[in-house]
Fold this protein.
Amino acid sequence: MGNLVEAFDLAGRAGRPALIPFVKGAEQRPVSYGDLGALAARFAGVLDRLGLAPGDRVVAKVEKSVAGLALYLATLQRGAVFVPLNTAYRPQEVEYFLRDTAARLVVCDPAERPVLQPMADGIGAAVLTLDADGKGSLAETAAAPQPAILPRREDDVAAILYTSGTTGKPKGAMLTHGNLRSNAEALRDLWRVTGNDVMLHALPIFHAHGLFVGCNVMLLAGARMLFLPKFDPAQMLDLLPRATVMMGIPTFYARLMSDPRLDHDRVAGMRLFTCGSAPLLAATHREWSARTGTAILERYGMTETGMNTSNPYDGERRPGSVGPALPGVLVRITRAETGEVLPAGEVGMIEVKGPNVFKGYWQLPERTAAEFRADGWFITGDLGFLSQDGYVQIVGRGKDLVITGGYNVYPKEVETEIDALEGVLESAVIGLPHADFGEAVTAIVVARAGTAPDERAIQTALRDRLAGFKLPKRVIFLAELPRNTMGKVQKAQLREAYRGLYSA
Ligand code: AMP
């Protein structure tokens, strides 16, 4: 299939707008596909001048910008491997990624250069800088533009993305040109993305959601992106009338709904709202429909696989479900321990197979082998079940499962009941060490503004709805749940914070 960048046809679409960037709240001049290609060619020239060879790793810890996107394209164009890092990482974490990838080039914000330079020197990597305005030594290095796109095979690695692993060291998932391209094509077709679309892009581009689902799909379709450095609900509401597509995480939707300006009229021109990266509450889905007259399309994927399932474009977008498998992708539910395939309705391990599934973890063949079945199915680590008509419903991460007195408790089930109670905004259910039960079901609850539900009331209200072993032994109130940039509740952090709750 060749190099992914070829599929974007930057030269063929030279006159079409690709990006309308916003910097510090101000709209900038549109950037055409041709401009983007020219910038990528300039950066590719710099990579050539540094002697980067196909397969070499380029680590990028840069703010979201047009230049940051061009660096991604330039890296792929030269057959090198793009390694985007979360901008929130601390120097010590970055050092791990530099060493682990044996990077040849590090691109960072000028302010971070003094700290990162000695680390890069230690592994013989070059350092270039790029700030949020596209300035820095990457842009200033004189080099002849290199527009050539090197041929790549389908299974050549295009990018390594480190997964937000909550236990042990992060693992680098190797995504190939074939993985990225097949997934972008499937999503473009399923979601009917065309050159007429305008996407409101407020996701970070160091993560698979913003970079691969957002940028790859839009560039493949020849569409346009309103490119925002971060999510600002007021700005999003201003821009909604100019867009046709928005991709978001649950937090985006919750925050947009807290603004009274959100109504049917404001989204009249919107064709598609998608949501993923973390579970969208069925209640949020319904509330959004009532407020806007549009149904959010929830989908499910992960760094290692790109997108696996999606609610349909035309058919029913079911609240609380992530929809059926994408065309070309196979999904099954198994008993985690044995791999035995389970029938519809039974909760088990979600496994997937298809051209979207990654090549393996960078330099971790054993970890890779442990997460695949002998027949090639990838074990996602997510638990869920299939409906009779093939819709997947996720019940949580396997590692978040609570085992209390020998019984399995799926946190999602308990959370759903708690969230339905009066005065509760949201909740997270975790298992904490307990002398008698092994783990004790524990609920962390965020109350709605102006209400003060108490522990007893919650426990009593749940008594009629859940079996005794599923009831939270304790309910703890917090002002908000700890979340990462992608809106995922950090349960490991909660488990750590309350580790001693039952031993005191
Ligand atoms: P990441 O690799 O950071 O993209 O995280 C992937 C994980 O996010 C998946 O394995 C799921 O646990 C979770 N996830 C992604 N999309 C959804 C969704 N729509 N509903 C529930 N969990 C999701």
